[in-house]
Amino acid sequence: MNKKMPVRRCVGCQEMKLKKEMIRVIRNAEGEFMLDATGKKNGRGAYICPDPECLAKAIRNKGLERSFKQSIPKEVYELLEKEMEQIESE
Q1: pLDDT digits (tens, 9 = 90+) for 7-60
Q2: Cα separation of 87 and 90, whole Å?
Q3: Nearest-angstrom CA–CA distance, 67 and 58
Q4: Do the beta carbons of residue 55 and residue 62 sit within 8 Å?
Q5: Residue 34: in which H helix or E strand, if any?
């Protein structure tokens, strides 16, 4: 029996991809933004491909802002960029 794999839309490229291939960005109850590598943390989540190009698109088209219905601090994008670099260098 085929198990259905969850898919999510990237806030950058707008493509549907497998959830486990993407990075989850969450906003918790305190309003803090963080990356959720496990995909299990509580909070409102948005997904982005682990690709700097998708992040650039998400920043340009305000994909994360739309997902969370609020403005995103610059530090969050910087954190995402750093994490992307770490993922690429692994």
Answers
A1: 999 999 999 999 988 888 888 888 888 888 777 888 889 999 988 899 899 989
A2: 5
A3: 10
A4: no
A5: strand 33-36
